[in-house]
Design goal:
The complex is a heterodimer of chains A (386) and B (228). By secondary structure, chain A is of the alpha+beta class. Chain A contains 14 helices and 13 strands. In chain A, the strands form two sheets. In chain A, strands 1, 3, 4, 5, 6, 7, 8, 9, 10, 12 and 13 form an eleven-stranded mixed sheet that branches. Chain A has a two-stranded antiparallel sheet with strand order 2-11. Chain A is elongated, with a radius of gyration of 30 Å. In chain B, strand 4 and strand 5 form a beta hairpin. Chain B has a single domain, classed as P-loop containing nucleotide triphosphate hydrolases (Rossmann fold, 3-Layer(aba) Sandwich). The chains are: A alpha+beta (386), B alpha/beta (228). The complex binds adenosine-5'-triphosphate and magnesium ion (MG).
Chain lengths: 386, 228
């Protein structure tokens, strides 16, 4: 018989109680993982943002456009390496519930600004060559069964009318936190239609995306850009992409904060559940610990028995919890309206946190029983009758 | 013969509600190597306390306890634990087996503290179980055994590490007549065949009859008696 065998036999002595404890821990780990995944999803925009991208938007609100003419002026500022622009399109694809980002872009500069979107060189040239071309992220392509050459029909709302885009490329994200749901088409295509239908809206872009060489100069360059358009009809507000995204997220920051706190409270619950089980268990075994001590087992052995048992339970609970979490997160993602969270994955840090929590909780839950077992006098333990 | 256990001027007091009670009062006692000694006396007279001090699981308040040349009163807890595992075999009234372990595993328990290999341990456990006549029951759990059989497993556990001294606190106190006789016969064999020193607390005169010497305790005082 090994120590391990003894520990496992001990852990499963009260089968029902230990099973309930393990289930309790598993459920808590699932809840912890779910909450953390939601937080990750929420923050992923910020996490994926690049520090060398500046977003130049209309100072009053990003729903107001900026003149196309700003492009050359921004490009003239020292430190700016590339100027690109994007334009929210909105529109309805299939029906109103189908949500993913659709934007007009400058095909010449888009991919230099967003290297996280991977396309083959033939896709890139096909996209650039065709004015009605678009590219879509692989997630969106899979979801609608889109292939190269397919036509996407959209009903415009911000830009009324019916629109046809030809899929010329399907991009894959560089990493899991990059958004693989977006759709980009030629801003030129949009602009030409505006020139015809509504000239007052022509030659305007939604916002500029500016690449700078040195991220540490972002504040200074942002200021220079905004100064350039001070007192013009369309003043600008320039931020790093991270700040821009955070603007979206900050309004929900309090909720996210609360969810984060909740996820850690759950660890606290796990701790209480396990502490309770361990304290009950070790109280019942007071006499056995006395017998073990009289046979010559020492503090180190008791530590191994008690901590080993607590860790066996906490790791089983955490392991089962994680095994359940993976399909549950996938199922949840399938249920969520598409595009709500472009990124919905269990982060490595969630696994690490769950694992290290199991370790810490196991050790802490062993402290009280261990302290009692160590300080207990053998003769008192032998007299113990429960 | 030399005294394997030599107790001189042993006093043990407990504090209860700020009041000191004397449980053992200036007890001096020698027990020879290979003796079979019974401790008798009314309830509360200090029998268990004396036995526990001899076994090194309780400490004297005053006086000296020398066992096989070691003054166990001055050993640290860890030293004492190690000393117990080598020198003392415990037999309790309520057997105190671990319920989730088989008879074999219960007997193996003290051997986990020794450097024996797995196969050496197995041999030792089988030997101990055959001495108590339970070799066929080694895969049984305590709940599948009768009280007498449980006590025999407990004796096998005490035998396994081959200690010199066995301490038994009312080993037959919870058993019927027949089982009690079996246990006593077993203790006698340990004493006669294997030369083990046995100190047994008992209320039962017929159990005490098996011992060579009977000591009586009365309210913490030792009243020496003649040989039986
Ligand atoms: N840990 C303790 N704290 C306080 N008092 C104790 C403690 N252990 C024993 N005593 C007291 O010491 C006295 C002797 O106890 P002990 O257990 O040695 O008696 P005993 O002779 O074995 O009695 P019994 O035949 O009932 O087992 C009793 O009055 C008991 O209440
Ligand atoms: Mg007693």
């Amino acid at each position: 018989m090994s120590m391990t065998k003894l520990i496992v036999k001990n852990a499963f002595r009260h089968t029902l109680r230990v099973l309930l404890t393990i289930i309790g821990i598993s459920v808590a780990v699932v809840a912890f993982g779910m909450l953390r995944t939601v937080v990750t999803a929420w923050n992923s925009g910020v996490a994926a943002s690049s520090p060398n991208r500046l977003i130049v938007r209309q100072a009053v609100s990003f729903i107001f456009p900026l003149p196309y003419a700003y492009k050359e002026k921004i490009a003239s500022i020292p430190g700016v390496s590339t100027v690109s622009w994007l334009n929210w399109f909105g529109g309805t694809y299939i029906d109103k519930d189908q949500f993913f980002a659709r934007q007009g872009c400058d095909p010449e500069t888009l991919l230099s600004l967003y290297p996280e979107f991977k396309l083959t060189s033939s896709e890139i040239s096909a996209f650039k060559a065709d004015r009605s071309a678009c590219i879509v992220g692989i997630e969106t392509a899979k979801r609608y069964g889109l292939n190269i050459g397919d036509i996407m029909n959209m009903e415009g709302d911000i830009y009324p009318g019916s629109w046809q885009f030809t899929v010329r490329g399907i991009y894959t994200p560089r990493s899991k936190t990059d958004d693989a749901t977006q759709m980009f088409f030629h801003w030129e295509y949009l602009n030409e239609r505006m020139k015809q239908d509504d000239p007052s809206r022509a030659d305007q872009v939604g916002y500029y995306v500016v690449k700078i060489n040195d991220p540490s100069r972002s504040a200074e360059i942002s200021q220079k850009i905004d100064q350039l358009f001070k007192n013009s009809a369309a003043e600008t507000k320039t931020e790093t992409e991270g700040q821009f995204q955070q603007g979206f997220v900050s309004s929900s920051g309090a909720i996210i904060g609360a969810i984060n706190i909740m996820s850690y409270l759950i660890i606290g619950i796990i701790l209480l559940v396990l502490c309770n089980t361990m304290i009950m268990t070790s109280r019942e075994r007071t006499r056995e610990y006395a017998v073990l001590k009289s046979l010559g087992f020492t503090g180190g052995h008791l530590f191994a028995f008690i901590a080993g048992e607590a860790l066996t339970i906490s790791f089983l609970g955490a392991g089962i919890g994680i095994a359940l979490l993976i399909p549950i997160v996938q199922g949840f993602e399938a249920l969520l309206p598409r595009g709500w969270f472009p990124v919905f994955i269990i982060e490595t840090s969630t696994y690490v946190l769950a694992g290290s929590s199991a370790l810490i909780v196991g050790v802490i839950a062993a402290i009280i029983p261990l302290y009692r077992a160590l300080t207990m006098k053998i003769v008192d333990g032998l007299r113990f009758t429960g | 013969m030399s005294a394997i256990i030599s107790i001189s001027h042993l006093t043990k007091t407990y504090k209860r509600d700020k009041q000191e009670i004397t449980v053992l009062n200036d007890v001096s006692l020698d027990i020879e190597q290979g003796d079979f000694v019974a401790l008798m006396g009314p309830s509360g007279s200090g029998k268990t306390t004396l036995l526990n001090i001899i076994a090194g699981i309780d400490r004297p308040t005053n006086g000296e306890v020398m066992i096989d040349g070691t003054n166990i009163g001055i050993l640290s807890e860890t030293e004492l634990a190690k000393w117990r595992s080598r020198h003392i075999g415990f037999i309790f009234q309520f057997y105190n087996l671990i319920p989730v372990l088989t008879a074999f595993e219960n007997v193996e328990l003290p051997l986990m503290l020794t450097p024996l290999t797995k196969s050496e341990r197995r041999r030792q456990v089988e030997l101990a179980l055959s001495v108590v006549g339970l070799a066929e029951r080694m895969d049984h759990y305590p709940r599948q055994l009768s009280g007498g059989q449980e006590q025999r497993v407990a004796i096998a556990r005490a035998i396994a590490s081959d200690p010199d001294i066995f301490v038994a606190d009312e080993p037959t106190g919870d058993l019927d007549r027949v089982s009690a006789e079996e246990i006593l016969t077993l203790l006698e064999r340990l004493n006669k065949e294997f030369g083990k020193t046995i100190v047994m607390v008992t209320h039962d005169p017929s159990a005490a009859n098996r011992a060579h010497i009977v000591h009586h305790l009365e309210k913490g005082d030792l009243i020496p008696q003649g040989q039986s």
